[in-house]
Give the backbone structure.
Amino acid sequence: MKALVLDKPGSPKSLRPAEVPRPEPAEGEVRVRVQAVGLNPVDYKLAASGFPGWDYPFILGLDVSGIVEAVGPDVAEWEEGDKVYYHGNHCKPGGYAEYAIAPSHIVSWIPEGLTFTQAAALPCAGFTAYQALHRKLHVQPSKTIFIHGGAGGVGGFAVQLSRIAGLKVITSCSSHNFKFVQRLGADEVIDYRSEDVASRVNELTGGRGVDYVIDTVGPDSATESLGVLAYGGQIACIAGLPDITMVTPFEKAFSVHELALGGAYLSGNQSDQEDLAKIAREFGALVGKGRISPMLEQTITLEEIPEALVRLSMRHVRGKIVAEIQ
């Protein structure tokens, strides 16, 4: 089969087309004929670092949509021809290929009305945003949330989910993306390039701070965000945890949540992994009903993935990029 492979850790530019054997599903697995695969920052990060236990050449790609082509022993819930999508295991070969293998218990139906390409835009970023709001923060209506990077994948889905949940939404982005995030549901938008974000958030909340923060940037940003939390506030961190020593103990009684979808696979706990499929059904239903936009901004080919990952690594890509495989 045709695939894009990584021979050793390095730049996404080092990914190369190759012919590799078609994988066979083992017990409890399905083989999916990949129709589309979504691109995510974790892809170029894993390309650079590699991961213990990988066999090279390795195939990246976590966000897969396609058609079940074969099922392994003891798989009763899926059959050939089913249209599915899922967030894959970064420890195993992924979807930058014509075929991919997935555990049957992490796969979900593609929401009715969505194309394969739209479905592939959802898993990593959309499921992370959903997990942040509804598995970690347990958001309540009429509260206030600040979302870093509202024009990005996780940020954009988080803005939309927050709007649906009845929150007042403050987000940051570049000025040329203001209208984009406002269409997604942002009430207030801060230009992180020209404004002091923390000061502006506190100004918008009358000095009280926000009830929730979703930080998509990194540890320094997460640490700074502790200063905009109200008493009893919560922060969900996508790209690194804050330094809580920077806040006076017992002053804010805040909570910190780490987000890591891939940890469900590392846990070895099947119920944790099954929750990924449950999130796929819950979040996917919102997208299928038109309440959430898949934010599909660009469609590319398998061969164009390396260059697109380089652009993604520059952190100025809006929405989602998806590669169509078939």
About this structure: The two ends are 12 Å apart (CA to CA). The domain at 2-122+262-324 is CATH 3.90.180.10 (Quinone Oxidoreductase; Chain A, domain 1). The chain is about 30% helix and 25% strand. The chain has two domains: 2-122+262-324, 127-258.
